[in-house]
Design brief:
Layout lengths: L2 E5 L3 H12 L3 E5 L3 H10 L15 E4 L2 H5 L4 E4 L6 H8 L8 E4 L12 H9 L6 E5 L4 H5 L4 E6 L3 H10 L5 E6 L2 H24 L3 H21 L4 H4 L2 H11 L5 H10 L4 H7 L5 H16 L4 H10 L23
Parallel strand pairs: 1-2, 1-4, 2-3, 4-5, 5-6, 7-8
Antiparallel strand pairs: 6-7
Helix pairs in contact: 4-5, 8-9, 8-11, 8-12, 8-14, 8-15, 14-15
């Protein structure tokens, strides 16, 4: 039986640990808080993040990253993007040199604009052939409840992606593969920004026409951005792009949608962050994504207006980015 480590015991990390354990793997989950570790090991629950969900008995938790990482063939990382670099600097000496590192994160590093896989490669000097990105329409609460879904594992080396896909495929979770790391990763990052925009207009009280317009124009906007950075267009039409956008854009299970909805109702960014129990990566990614867009000359009117609402420079009810400008390519019916 393979041993896998999952670093991060929030809703997504715990859910993915369950996915791996239900696939017949030996999984150790690293958590920061003693009470979370005790609950997982004693009660096979993580009530703070996955209330009502029973976890497999073969899934164990630890406070010690060395215990989690010892002998791990795969290391799945599910921490907030803002803490990744610091965590990697601490974990580096403990990670087996032949381990495959898998990013479950959907954010851009503040200050550098690096994707999470790039941070992993830079901090640990890890080969690209041993770094995988997993993304897709994956709302943790639904997966934990074993609703059937799918994801994509992307790596520059096809055999590595296939190894991860086999590990995280079970009766309710299917994982496909591709070699478009950039597109798969940016799909997960950028859809969060559109989900915040749709949450804002929902909070204001606008209807389906407005939300559908923003989702459609948003897909074109994030696709232009991703392609400008080397992604493949068809990746943005697949699970990691359109699929993830649909799942995230109107679900109350989406933290980014809920964050946007609160902004639309007039809450400040500070109040939104205080009310959310976990990180909404879309709020943190807006500024670095717009910097990256400017560097490539890509227009992102939706994301620009989201930033204005976040900063209090535009009343939420005035948001109408789908009415601004023209796409680089005509949008047909």
């Amino acid at each position: 039986m393979s041993k896998f480590a999952v670093m991060g015991a929030g809703s997504w990390g715990t859910t993915f640990a369950k996915v791996l354990a239900d696939g017949g793997n030996d999984v150790v989950l690293w958590a920061r808080r003693d009470e979370v570790v005790e609950e997982i090991n004693d009660d096979h629950r993580n009530g703070d993040y996955l209330p009502g969900i029973d976890l497999p008995k073969c899934l164990t938790a630890t406070l010690d990253p060395a215990v989690a990482l010892d002998g791990a063939e795969h290391v799945y990382i599910a921490v907030p993007s803002s803490t990744l670099r610091t965590n990697l600097e601490a974990w580096g000496p403990m990670i087996p040199k032949d381990a495959i590192l898998v990013s479950l994160m959907k954010g851009v590093e503040q200050g550098t604009g690096l994707r999470m896989s790039q941070v992993i490669e830079e901090v640990l000097d890890w080969p690209k052939s041993q770094v995988v990105v997993v993304s897709g329409p994956n709302l943790s609460a639904e997966i934990a409840a074993e609703h059937p879904t799918a994801a994509v594992a992307a790596c520059y080396k096809a055999e590595t992606a296939a190894s991860v896909a086999r590990a995280c495929t079970n009766e309710y979770f299917t994982t496909f593969t591709n070699k478009d790391v950039i597109g798969t990763e940016f799909g997960g990052i950028l859809k969060n920004l559109i989900a915040v925009a749709i949450g804002i207009v929902n909070g204001v009280g606008f209807g389906q026409n407005t939300k559908a317009s923003i989702m459609t124009r948003g897909l074109a906007e994030i696709s232009r951005f991703a392609v400008a950075y080397g992604a493949k267009q068809n990746t943005m039409m697949g699970l990691a792009g359109l699929g993830d956008l649909i799942a995230t854009s109107e679900s109350p299970l989406s933290r980014n949608f809920r964050a946007g909805e609160m902004l639309g109702k007039g809450f400040s960014k500070r109040e939104v962050l205080r009310r959310l129990s976990q990180t909404a990566e879309g709020l943190n990614s807006v500024a670095p994504v717009l910097e990256l867009a400017a560097a490539k000359g890509v227009k992102m009117p939706i994301v620009e207006q989201v930033q204005m609402v976040i900063e209090g420079k535009m009343p939420p009810k005035e948001i109408a980015p789908h009415l601004m400008g023209e796409d680089e390519e005509p949008q047909g019916e």
